[in-house]
Specification:
Layout: H1 16-26, H2 45-58, H3 66-79, H4 84-91, H5 96-99, H6 106-115
Amino acid sequence: MEGNKTKREEIVPLNISALRIIELRRGVNDSRYIFTGLDGVKLRNSRIYNMLSSVLKKHNITNASPHTFRHTCASHLVIKGVSLYVVRDILRHASIKETEIYAHLSKEAVATAIEHISA
């Protein structure tokens, strides 16, 4: 698989909003891919990256890339109290060590959790 370091097929969990968007895209063409051109042919990773870069530039958003969205998603999950082990699985990190860069964000979640404990 292009762009996949392990070259193995992955299952990506999606929420209901994402599933609805995919269903809407299915009506556009009969492709099995989510990101396609108007002809239904799968877009290469480089094309998706270039399209996103163009949108970021148009809106004067600097220092961002597709990886920024991945990092931001992980950060929000940890801040909301999601276990680092669950975040690791979502990000498909091979080791929890890779996910531990987000550990400092969980301190706020821990403080919030402690407030829920009643005496």
